Protein 1
Amino acid sequence: TQKVVIVGGVGGGATVAAQIRRNDKDSEVIIFDKGNHISFSNCGMPYYIGGTVEERDNLLIPTDKFMEKYDVDVRVNSEVIAIDRNQKLIQYSTASGIKEETYDKLILSPGASANAPNIEGINEKRTFTLHTIPDMDQIHSFIKEKKPKTAAIVGAGFIGMEMVENLHALGLDCTVIDRSKQVTKIIEKDMASIVEDHLKEKNVKLILDDGLASFSNDGRELLLTSGKTVQADMTILAIGIKPNTKLAIDASLKLGETGAIHVNEFMQTTDPDIYALGDAVETMDQITKTTRHVALAWPAHRQAFIIASHLDGEIIAYSGTLGSAILKIFDLTVGATGHTSTSLKRLGYTFKEATLSTYSYARYYPGSDKLWLKVLFDEKSGAIYGAHVVGFAGADKRLAVLATAIKAKLTVADLPELELAYAPPYSSSKDPINILGYKASAALER
Ligand code: FAD
């Protein structure tokens, strides 16, 4: 038995505690979280704001239930402020002062923080980020009490796009602002334009290639770098995150090239008694074997399993991250796995691409809708480097098949051979994945 201390009790931290208890009923496990809640569903927060998830409690697991179920000591409102690696203890700060706790093994899952620059003229009461339950509650009560009519969403990534949909559902007139030339950079510009058209169809105003410079009029007017102005009763800043690395830096643990915590394939930091996982770490990219910082729930959960196994003497290596991601933008599904041409070019890869604009299933069957697919691949070996999907019904299925194909090291020449089940409500006798494979195979060097 050993004493395991976990810093952070949500995506990675709560999962690793639960995983430890799979086989190990005896070790002492203590979770510290600086917030008031553990094991909450961050991913559900936009949908509570928009009303799709009606009950706030459905996003939360009561701490006492978690403690009882997993026999874990959970200390909320307790921020770990320092690690003493020589004495193997941590210091944590609570309302009743600074305390200490020793450990045999320490696990860091402190996540990331939303970027929130102190922009000139900002009014904190009407400008929000969304990363924690208190952030969600603030947005929710602002909408309820102040009844805003207009919203600006700065940043057209995951959280920005999910917030547009949910604020729009509440009847707010939304403007999205992003400094890049396209929305959703997990896919490429040609496919992002489909998303942009869809946003416009929903009467969302879109300002691209332009950034927020400052606020005026008590935070109600956004001044953009181009000189344009946008009026908004509330603003969501969804302009990225940065990994929480202060504890690791102060303890002289190595950071990686991306600025996140460096770990080996067993998720150990440069101190073998200290593991780290989730949004705070960088891991290896499964395809290019270069380092990559991916802040998503799947890696955190898989890494939790790897750590719990390692503590239990079972040596399983984390095989790296693909960055498979999916999101809903109004009626559209947008997803990607692996790389975009931007990241491949940055890494010096040469590659080809095949694209397909088709239908999700038999056109004559009611509800059949448009589907766009793209695959990036090596022109000699046919190895798949990345795949992108945009569509309606069945888009998520095609993304899952392509992510599985990459993991299984299938090439584009294998895609026509995938015998994917067909009946008119689901597919066509040649599935769109098969057709994409035929197109890509035809472009292979002979
Ligand atoms: P977190 O889950 O953020 O947990 C970190 C915890 O550590 C926090 O509770 C924090 O309070 C605590 N902490 C930090 N420092 C300290 C300290 N010094 N002492 C004590 N406690 C500390 N991912 C997806 O794959 N799909 C999605 O649809 C999706 N949607 C999302 C929507 C939103 C709005 C957000 C914010 C995230 C979303 N994510 C999504 C990302 C996903 O939630 C994260 O990748 C995952 O939660 C990472 O787990 P983590 O343990 O690294 O960090």
Protein 2
Amino acid sequence: TNEFAFTDDPFDKMPKLRARLLANENPLGISPNAKEALVKAADLGNRYAWMEFAQLKTLLATDEGVKPTNIMMSPGSSDILMAAADHFAKGGGTILTSTMTYDDLLQRAEKFGAKIKALPMTKDYKFDLPAIKANITPDVKMVYIVNPNNPTGTIIPTAELEAFIREVAPKVPVFIDEAYIDFFEPAERPKLGKLVSEGQNVILARTFSKIHGFAGLRLGYAIAQPEMLKTLHAYTNGEFAVSITTLMAGIASYKDVDWQNHCRAENAKARNYTTKALTDMGYEVIPSSANFILFPIRMKTSAFSNQMFANGIGIQTRDFNGQPYCRVSVGTMDEMAMFMDSFKKVVG
Ligand code: PLP
């Protein structure tokens, strides 16, 4: 099984936090345009959201180079992950992935009968695609890849990922969890939609929880072949689980490219500041392309976590191969300064 699990459950300590840096949320909040749309949506709360679904899917499909029928909306991407876990666990078989990745889908699939085969990452904490390719055996039902990866923040070069999908997807479905894709600079963002329009058996999972700041509002979607979406749909509560308020806010946020650029730039600034401050102290920070940073620490995870929380700083800790790590979400510059201040105190 995936050995990279939470070592602490910090959520009961949340109310006392000065800096909530444990869930990769957007510290800047939602777009002002999305707020306005939420208020307008209140007047439409009595209506089913048929037109709004169509409007958002058309926007997304146009940008991704797919058809609206290649898109299924959901209340957050977790629903897509869970549907895939349920479907591919049915009747047993193996889900192939790497160690040290997001394990919600994996844990669920394991609970419902799948075997999880998590291969070691490369030395620089990336998915080892050649190793995954070499392990595609007849019992493998699905490959799960997270790009950018959580918790390492690492990315797979786009050309390598595309070649991998073209080779593997004809044999076994490839699930790419792109929760953090919006943190790529727009010019460098992988455009895997074109592989879907080529007919490849790939499932892309997306969320508004990160750069759009919708973690509480709940909005996500899958991009895949229509037959695959139909299969996954059967394991969900249906698209109407997304409210008209969230949809209208989502449309406004999606169109507010200035807000997304602002959040991406602020994230990069605070991430660079924190990476440099930790590196200056002699810590080896894994280069991150997302809104969190992972680095090995020199204290036991429980002692470190307890002391950071006692200082009002919420972070996450994990043990991996006997090495303790801290994962800190990127907050505002003020929050990262508070984090560094407490970190220095705690590690002495
Ligand atoms: N996938 C990854 C890699 C994540 O880190 C998260 C949340 O942090 C999710 C999926 C689920 O996010 P949500 O259900 O809010 O879209």
Protein 3
Amino acid sequence: PFDVLVVGGGPGGAAAAIYAARKGIRTGIVAERFGGQLLDTLGIDNFVSVQHTEGPKLAAQLEAHVKDYDVDVMNAQEAAALIPGGANGLHEVKLKSGASVKGKTVILSTGARWRQMGVPGEAEYRGRGVAYCPHCDGPLFKGKRVAVIGGGNSGVEAAIDLAGLVAHVTLIEFDSQLRADAVLQTKLGSLPNVTVITSALTTEVLGNGEKVVGLRYRDRGTDEEHLIELEGIFVQIGLVPNTEWLGDAVALSGRGEIEVDARGATSQPGIFAAGDVTTVPYKQIVIAMGEGSKASLSAFDHLIRAGA
Ligand code: FAD
């Protein structure tokens, strides 16, 4: 068995594996796709101390850094179930391939995925005007016109954030009213360069072959189609944690995120979690790496205390 078995090969899982391996203990990492969300990311300008990089490049560097150590990397392997072993037992991770791997401790770092609208043009123009992370890509749209899709807390926060950077924000909500907290709605209403459209269903992302030039939506009251000319679309209709495979092996929040404490411990002794898959707020690369390192140190601490 591994001393530390990491599930997930994104920034969180990679950091956890490096920190564990540096303790000289048996470390394994199972990843469906090593690099995680980085593989879908173009420019990265907020990875502190690196002025600019690109997702696939950072993913390759992460993998190289992990492989500098004695880590058993099991790439292209999907975990299908977790069977906790209790306080001093071995935890088992069953793989989709039918194999199973065991660890004295386990670090869950399976990340999350942005919920997509599923309309024509969205996938085609992803990274070319269609964006999901205002903290990451907001500055690319400085002085331009953007839409935010979704009137929950994250959509309204994104609209407020973007309004300070871009020329104009159109917030589009499917329901007849916004669902964000009142204080956010009040703030949004005070901004001169924000238009809110409710009861609107986005039907198409329009592009010119190179980048986004507009968005089409249907007014759900009148059934009329409308066109908005703009350069950017931020989709804020939810971040879905990759926890379906866990069932009820560890405690999850109402949104399906793994509940962790300040040390990254889950509800099961010896099982830790880090990154976008957890309840830790603000899903970012530096945060996932910090949390992965922390969970790994906690796992090591657990091992010495358990006398393993
Ligand atoms: P992930 O990166 O999601 O990695 C999860 C890992 O788990 C992957 O290896 C995946 O294959 C694996 N996995 C999932 N399920 C299973 C399973 N059942 N079995 C085995 N393995 C599994 N953040 C920034 O800080 N700056 C940016 O500029 C930025 N831009 C972004 C742009 C885009 C388009 C996207 C999508 C995200 C962006 N982010 C950015 C967010 C950032 O990518 C995430 O916060 C970060 O990748 C989270 O790391 P993680 O390790 O928690 O999860």
Protein 4
Amino acid sequence: TRESHPARDTADEPRPIPLTRSCPFAPPAELTALREREPLSRIANPDGTTGWLVTDHALARKVLGDPRFSARQELMSSPLTARRAEPAMPGGFLFMDPPQHTRYRKLLTGQFTVRRMRRLEARVEEVTERQLSLLRAQGKGADLVEHFALPVPSLMICELLGVPYEDHEFFQSRAVAIFRLVQDPEESGAAYAALRTYLLDLVRRRRGEPADDILSDLVTGSDLTDDELIGMALLLLLAGHETTANMLAMATFALLSHPGQLTLLREDPSLIGGAVEELLRYLSIMHVGLPRAALEDVELADRVIAQGDTVTVSVAAANHDPRKFGPADGLDITRSATGHVAFGHGIHQCLGQQLARIEMRIGINGLLREFPGLRLDVPVCEVPVRSDMGVFGVHRLPVTW
Ligand code: HEM
């Protein structure tokens, strides 16, 4: 009866997706409550439909690995806006299913193998060292985002892809419009258009004169159209610096706010590999989660997800599931965080994850080594966090040393 099951009644009532983090890292407390009560729960979408939210680690991997769930954004209801997204642009394979997804992704896998990325390590070290000297040249303190966390991944993806880094202000400012939690269609449309024009010019130049970079390899080694090349380049350019930049800044922020963990890593830099995995898990910067659309009715956790329903997999909730990671709320760099879904899971699992790991390992250890007195220059709760952006992080990280 209603009276004997009050908790179930509340649980069944779809609510908007929980997004507000507490000061400043922890995923929303509502997610934990949902996971315990109903790991596959209903959420109310702004377009009036009811979607689903996955908060459990095993279910998250199930959904992300199941071909009955599509990544095509035009099939989905957004948990954040009543507007439906356009189909992916040609080459934008993040939002495609096989066989289109397979075709594009295959053209890039050779460029991002573990072996190839290992060979890139020396270059990541050079870029990091140079950026650390520029940071030091700021005097007694600086914004770590502007002078370190953003330039390192940005320089690396520019170099790999063949985009001139001198143009970084142009594409970084456009990226802001695209990464807003809720896009303003006019602003993001203009940003896409400007970036496409810019990349078209680059593609044409590479057709005329190939160089030693991914764009040239794609131009010469495939039959992709200009539109497809632009779409792939845009995906790599955007995915390649926003995410890692926010992870570098947030990882530093988290370590500076956990002095015990910071000391552990300072005393034994060989812990960095595990520390990076734990930071990826703990911070789970893909803020809203990974959305999928059911292509057919799917039975999951004793419920039926109807064809056409949108399921959002909460990366943050899955990565804090105590059944997988033990008491998972605290940051513990000695924990085994293997199996986290910070890079997703299944066919769309992050293509750039090895590069991101290398940048984070070298970046964080370099920073701690070069700046033994590194500390926050403002109280923890005054750091401007990116709750307005799709990728969680900080807008600025004022530090001193
Ligand atoms: C896909 C996270 C860095 C390129 C993804 C996905 C996640 C993710 C969660 C899967 C999205 C989904 O399933 O819907 C991250 C994080 C990063 C990072 C947390 C940094 C710490 C990078 C870098 C690059 C990159 C450095 C490029 C060099 C891509 C691409 C995809 C992707 C191309 C689409 C893969 C596909 O659809 O097959 N990333 N990423 N990422 N990432 Fe990353």
